[in-house]
Amino acid sequence: MSSSRRSRTISWVRRSSAALALALASCGGSSQQLDDGVGTSRAEGNVRPIELTLRGTGGEWIHLGDLRGKPVLLFLMATFDGVSQAALRPTSRFVRHHAGELHVIGVAVQPNPQPLLVPYVDALQPGFPFAYQMEGTIGEGTSALGQLEAIPTYVMLDARGVEVDRHVGFPNTSTLDLMLEKAIARGGITEDGSPPPLIGHTPD
């Protein structure tokens, strides 16, 4: 690993640790902290569709460009992060409540995620697919998603693949619903939507 890449990875891990500390501190915080959730919401302002290719835990390829026609929620996380694991519960509940309305994909953005991601998913059974990026540019902040402030981060894309909102940190009960409402308001949703986010081929 080059020194510049190592530096970016270390910086990213430090930001992740800071997010975890913030979440733990909030457990004894005020009601205002709980109402707002742990983290902030904002959109990057991208006007072009996000194009990424991910690898599912079963070896299948997931191309975001093939999911046009429905909103897509990317749950950017790390298997070692306590906040990411805690966020699985509200995220899974959101997926159950909005089944068929959008695609939700968990994306492990830590360095070398594959060895830990499969047992992580098998143990926790999140109820939606998980994947990782072979190149690792998401965690480095050099992908089409830009810099990540911390993990977990939720990125909502509209039905055309354009980012409409993102939330950094643990979501409250309405965070993901509001993000979906923004995506739906942008239009572009097709009646039958796109194929499920388990697409491509599984290597032999």
**Main β-sheet, spatial strand arrangement:** 1-8-7-4-5-6-2-3
Radius of gyration: 16 Å
Number of strands: 8
Strand content: 15-25%
Low-confidence stretches: 17-39, 198-204
Order of helices and strands: HHEEEEHEHEHEEH
In CATH, the architecture is: 3-Layer(aba) Sandwich
Going by CATH, the homologous superfamily would be Glutaredoxin
Number of domains: 1
Salient structural properties:
204 residues, Glutaredoxin, disordered C terminus, alpha+beta, 35% helix
Structure description:
With 204 residues, the chain is α+β, with helices and mostly antiparallel strands. It has a single domain (3-185), classed as Glutaredoxin (3-Layer(aba) Sandwich), CATH 3.40.30. Helices cover 35% and strands 20% of the residues. It contains six helices and eight strands. Strands 1-8-7-4-5-6-2-3 form an eight-stranded mixed sheet. It is globular. The model is unreliable at 17-39 and 198-204 (pLDDT under 50).
